[in-house]
């Protein structure tokens, strides 16, 4: 065999080896990237789009699902449009309002110390954002960020020593929570009610039953 032929065979063998190594390296890189993509968790917060009236009612916390010591006062209600407005004297629904639900809770059997939850669904995220802004107002000194972010926008408001308001917007939905009386001294309760209500909406949007409770959320937040 001539020297030229031997050199050619050697060169071809070397090229094949390099190609194989390169191919294996690319497969390894691709595999690593796939593993990294699979390991990336999906966002927990899923913006609320459109839910039925029944879903909004199911999302409201029932007996044994609110904070410890609270029980449902009466029945869960369908919210009329004007009650999703920022002004208590409003006689019309805010722009973009679609539907809503609300509920109230007694604290240890007392109607003096109560909690109130309202869910308002709008036809767009912009309309829900506008209502969120009206709810929280402009008194920045009263506004505090929750320890753990909730939804797309959120704030807690210490209106007085015995009244805490909480607001959250997620997609097309805005949620309002008000806790009065002695239990209002701990804002984590308002935060837990907001977060639990939103997570229940998300469960229903995913076609699952609403199972999250405020007590569970509060316990997890304190860990």
Summarize the SSE layout with pairings.
Blueprint: H1 3-39, H2 53-59, E1 70-78, E2 97-107, E3 110-122, H3 125-136, E4 143-144, E5 153-160, E6 163-170, E7 173-180, H4 188-205, H5 214-222
Antiparallel strand pairs: 1-2, 2-3, 3-7, 4-5, 5-6, 6-7
Helix pairs in contact: 2-4, 4-5
- Distance linking N and C termini: 78 Å
| Low-pLDDT sequence parts | 1-43
Work out the number of β strands.
7
* SSE succession: HHEEEHEEEEHH
Would you tell me the structural class of the helices and strands?
A: alpha+beta
Strand order in the largest sheet: 1-2-3-7-6-5-4
Descriptive overview:
- There is one protein chain.
- The chain is an alpha+beta fold and 223 residues long.
- Helix content is 37%, strand content 26%.
- The chain has a 7-stranded antiparallel beta sheet with strand order 1-2-3-7-6-5-4, sandwiched between helices.
- A hairpin with a 2-residue loop joins strand 5 and strand 6 (163-170).
- The longest helix has 37 residues, at 3-39.
- The protein is globular, with a radius of gyration of 27 Å.
- The model is unreliable at 1-43 (pLDDT under 50).
